[in-house]
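Worked example 2:
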Amino acid sequence: MNKVEFLQSLEEVVVAPLFIGNSVDDLDKEIENNTWSISISGELATKLIVKDFINFFEKVISNRSEQLRDSKIGHDMFLYVWFDWQSAQIKFNLISDYNHGLPFSSDIEIIDELKLIIAEFLRFPYHDGIEIEVITDVDEEIEEDIRKELLKVFLYKING
């Protein structure tokens, strides 16, 4: 898949229907229905730029804002984006703003620049998988540093 085909394939994500919960009890259903993951090959990572993904997320925000306004549900939602290096995917989700905190079991760092997460995703050297030699060569000190690093999450409030 080339860059143009990849960006076109993201259009179905842009227009995907949004599930909007009515209470805190709907959090699991919001997570299940409103989570998207994006994977790319190493070759494609060299052809894409941060602006490609910024444009994509601007379209997503616009579409989800429209869906939320049209729903007349009466509350806002949080869009949050993170890079999951274990799966080599950029992920994002939307949950209602009455949920207190984001649904991560680990400590997170909220950042206000989406481009930092996208840049980390594009620079990741293992989009095509991690070779077993790399995994076995990681020494304990590096492994400990990795565990200490907080997951960076971009957070954006979409008004209803």
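Helices lie at 3-9, 11-14, 27-33, 42-47, 50-71, 114-123, 132-137, 140-148. The longest helix spans residues 50-71.
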